[in-house]
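Objective 1.3, modelling of assemblies. Example input:
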Amino acid sequence: MTETFLLFPDPAPSDLVRSLDLAGYNWTAVGGVEDLSTTEPEEGWTGAIIVADEQPERAWAVAREIRRRDVPIEPLLLMLSGNQLEELDSRDELFDDFLIAPFHPRELEARIKHLLWRAGRGVRPEMIEYGPLSLNLETYQAQISGHSLDLTYMEYELLKFLASHPGKVFTRETLLNRVWGYEYYGGARTVDVHVRRLRAKLGEENSHLIQTLRSVGYKLGSSRW
Amino acid sequence: MNFADAAAITLQVERQFEYVLKAVEERHVKLIRLWFTDVLGQLKSVAISPAELEVAFEEGVHFDGSSIDGFSRIQESDVLAMPDPTTFEMMPWADGGSTGRMFCNIVNHDGTPFAGDPRQVLKSNLDRAQKAGFNFFVAPEMEFFYFADGDPRHAPEPLDSGSFYDLTTNDVASDLRRETLSVLEAMGIPVEYSFHEDSPSQHEIDLRYTDALTMADQIMTFRLVVRELAMERGRFASFMPKPLPGIQGSGMHLHLSLFGPDGNAFHDEDAAYSLSPIAQKFLAGLLHHAREITAVTNQLVNSYKRLVVGYEAPTWVSWAQNNRSALIRVPVTRRDKPSSTRLEFRSPDPACNPYLAFSVILAAGMAGIENDYALPPETTDNLFELTPAAAADLGVAPLPSSLAEALDVMEGSELVRDALGEHIFEWFLRNKRSEWRDYKAHVSQWELERYLPSW
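Predicted structure (C-alpha cells):
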C-alpha cells in the first residue's frame, strides 16, 4: 500500500522533503485548510507534518481542521522554531509530537517511526512491487521476473522512487531534486544517463517499464487506479 | 537550514555505505576490489574481504604509495584509499560472479585529496567548471585490436587476417565482442555502436555520453573488461596506439559538450553549425592549447606513430565541420536534437590516462570561455596534403610530431601545470623524459635494415 503524509505549507521546506524522500515516505503538500479534502489520497492520509515557523496562524488553522474531521489525521507532527515553544501551551490536543527546526533528518525519521508505531500502524512498506519488478526495501535488493538486478546506489534509488509512484510523470529537475539531492556531476542530464543505465540492466524485454515522455520527463508503468 | 543539509549529506553517505554492505551480503560477494589509477593511467587494485568493508568505508584502506607510479616522493608515501560507494558494481565475468568493485579516491592522512591521484585531479577540474555553471560530458570512440597473443618478441598477429585463423576467427572475434558488450551493459556501461574498423582485427566500440568523471571510470573498466575477456579465450586485446606499421592505428575520438542549467550550452539553433558562443570559445580554447595538452592525450612514444599523414589521424591544429583530417570536427546533428550538438576531438588515443586527459581538455576549453578567445576560421582543405609553407599561409600549426616535442611544449604550459597540479605535472615530465631517453638510445630493426648494408 502507499503511505502518504500531508505536509503544510506548499511548497514544503526542501530539507523536509529531501529527508522524507530519503526515508522512503510519500507526501503531498497543501497550502491551507481549503485544500485538505481535494488532495486527500483514496486510501487516506498516513499522517501530517505541519511546519509552523513561517505562517504560524495558518499552520494552527490546518492542525485544528485536521483534528476536527470525522476521521482525524493521525499522527500529527509539528515543526516549529525554538522561539515558538510558548505557542505550544494549551494546544496539546493539536499535535502528537513536535520537532525544533533546524532538525536532524535522523531525528525526523525516528520520530515518524515512533509515532506510526504508537498509532498501531506498521512502519514503512517492506516491498514495492510493480508487474515483474520487485524491490525489497529492507535488503535493498531489486528483482525483475525473479532475477536479481545488480544496481548502483543511485540506480536503485531512482528505480525505487519511480516504482513507488507508478504512472506518475516526473520532470528531470524533480527527479534530480528528490532522488539525488546532493553532490553529483552532470545536472539534469544525469537523469537521462541513469535511466539509460537502468534500462540496460532491466534488459530488453523490461526496458519499456520506464517510459520517456518527450520533453516532459519519465514515468514507470501506469497508475493502478 | 544549513545544519539539516549537512546532516542530510552525512546521512546520504551512510545510506550509500549501508546499500553496498547489504548488496555484498545479499549477493554473496566474496571479494571486493578497490580500484584506483596511477599517473600513467594503469589500473591498480587492492582486494579486501566483505568483513573488512565497513572499516574501509569509515577509515579508508591504508597503503604505501611509493610502489605506485607517480604517487609519491619518498618522504610522503603513506596514503588512504577511500572507496566511493556510488561506484559499486559486480564484476559478472570474474571469479564466478562473486567479485564486486569500487573506485577509490586517494586522500592524505589528514583527509585532504592526495595531489598524485588522477581521479581527484579530474574532480577538482570538474568542480571548477561546475562553479562556472557547466557540467562536462564526454562520449569516447574506443578503438583496439584483437591479436593472437601479446608476446612482444614478434610482430602482433591479427586474428582475422592470417590464413591460419581463417576458419575460426570470425567466430572468435564476434563471440568475444558480443560477450564484451553484454558484460559492459551489465556493469552499467551502455554502448552506442560497435563495429569492425578498417584494419584487420581492429574493433571500435562507442560508449554513450555521461559526465566526465563517470566516463573516466568507465574507460578504466572498459579497458580491463576487453583485455580480460580476450585473455579468457586465449587471445590478446591491445589499446596500443599504433601496433602495426602501415595500417590505421587506434584512436580514442572524444565527443565533448558542456551542459548548463538550461541544457546543452554548446547549442544555438540560429548560429552556424548550431554552435553557441560558448561552444565557439571552448573550441577556440582547445585549439589554442592543443599543442600543450598533446603530451597528456598522447602519452606514449608510440602515440606519435599514429599521428602521421596518410591515415585517419590529425596532424594539424585545425577545425572543420566535415573534414576527416581536422583535429576538431563539428559533427552534423539534427536541428531538433539540441542535446547532441558537440565537438569531436580526434587526437587522443586509448592509451592515455582518461582522468588527466579530460582534465587538460576541459581546462583548455574553459580557458577559451574565460578569456574570450576568438575562433580562427574553419579549415576545409584536405590537410593530409598540406605542405609546411601552405600551412603557414593558412595559419595552421602542426601537432607535436614526437613525445619529446610534446613534452617541450607541455613544460612551458601554465595551463597544463595548473590543471594537473604541481605534483603530477613534474612527475609526469620527469617520467616521460626518461621514457624518451630510453627510446632515443635504442637502435631499431628499421635502422639496421636501412643502414647496415650500406654503411
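Chain A touches chain B at residues 13, 15, 18-19, 22, 101-106, 139-141, 148, 150, 152-156, 181-183, 185-190, 193, 196-197, 200-201 (CB under 8 Å).
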